[in-house]
Amino acid sequence: MKKNRIKIIGLDLDGTVFNDEKEITSRTRKAIAHAIASGIYVLPATGRPKVGLPEAFLSIPGVRYALICNGASIVDLKKNKTIYHRCLPKETVLAIAETCADVEGTFELYIEGNAVMSKEHMKLADRYIPSPYIRDYVRKTRIVVDDLRDYLMYCPDDVEKINMSYESADRKDAVMDLLKDVPGISMACGLATNLEITMEGTDKGTALLEFGRMLGVPRESILACGDSGNDRMMLRKVGVGVAMANAEDDIKLEADYVLPYTNSEDGVAWLIEHILDNGMEI
Predict the structure, then answer these.
(1) 184: phi then psi, degrees, rounded to nearest 5
(2) What is the pTM of this model?
């Protein structure tokens, strides 16, 4: 077994920290608080924008940083400041929107911590976002505009991520094929039917390593835990990659360890308790 002294823990949210009811249990919150009090930096490492970060996580004493938009940004929550940023050029966003225009599905932009969606695409959320919890989350957090293209043209800020949802995995795969020749982008999937696009070379793993560099923490002391496609590079690149028991099979293959517990069995709490009980080693 590896013996790495853990100083940074990056945690995916959906399917990892959240249980199936989209809750963060008191045991998990307590474990995260204890890790932070013990000197470990614990931060969400999520595909969500800043506006989608759950208060149940942010209110844990000592939580200061968040990795958002699949690693496009890292924010210092205490200072309300972005400390790492990799964004898509507007011309690339417009090219993607044009390429996908004839394929029905949702299309939204994550911009400076917010998520922006057109009225037309918000109406499609019930059809193309399968989880009622995610649909409710989307309705509560999105800025809805009449015309997303017009909004983008006049918005002074850069796009951190494009997020799209489709009726089937086959439809999503077809869109990925349409976009395969678009230069300068990375594609990942948090769900079987969704597609997430960031600037080329942008992923949770690269961002966590950069966060470690900022803090003087080496790769071998960075741990990440996740369950799905947009966690792949994070588990592959950090010093210790941990997959949930409920993780997709191919994601488990990327991990150094697979937890014996799922997101609904307090798997993250068990992991952190194990680290603290073993002198912050795993």
Answers:
(1) 80, 20
(2) 0.93
For residue 3, pLDDT over 90 is answered with no
Q: What percent of the chain has pLDDT over 70?
A: 98
DSSP string across the chain = ----B--EEEE-IIIIIS-TTS---HHHHHHHHHHHHTT-EEEEB-SS-GGG--HHHHTSTT--EEEEGGGTEEEETTTTEEEEE--B-HHHHHHHHHHTTTS-SEEEEEETTEEEEEHHHHTTHHHH---HHHHHHHHHHEEEES-HHHHHHH--SPEEEEEEE-SSHHHHHHHHHHTTT-TTEEEE-SSTTEEEEEETT--HHHHHHHHHHHHT--GGGEEEEE-SGGGHHHHHHSSEEEE-TTS-HHHHTT-SEE-SS-GGGTHHHHHHHHHHHTTTB-
| pLDDT above 90 for 93 | yes
| Residues in contact with 144: Cβ distance below 8 Å, sequence separation at least 6, in sequence order | 116, 117, 118, 119, 122
Q: Out of 2-6, 28-32, 101-105, 256-260, which region has the weakest mean confidence (pLDDT)? A: 2-6
Neighbours of 173 (CB within 10 A): 15
Whole-angstrom Cα distance, residue 126 to residue 12? 24
What's the one-letter identity of residue 127? R
Q: Are 60 and 76 within 8 A, CB to CB?
A: no
Instruction: State the pLDDT at residue 2.
Output: 55
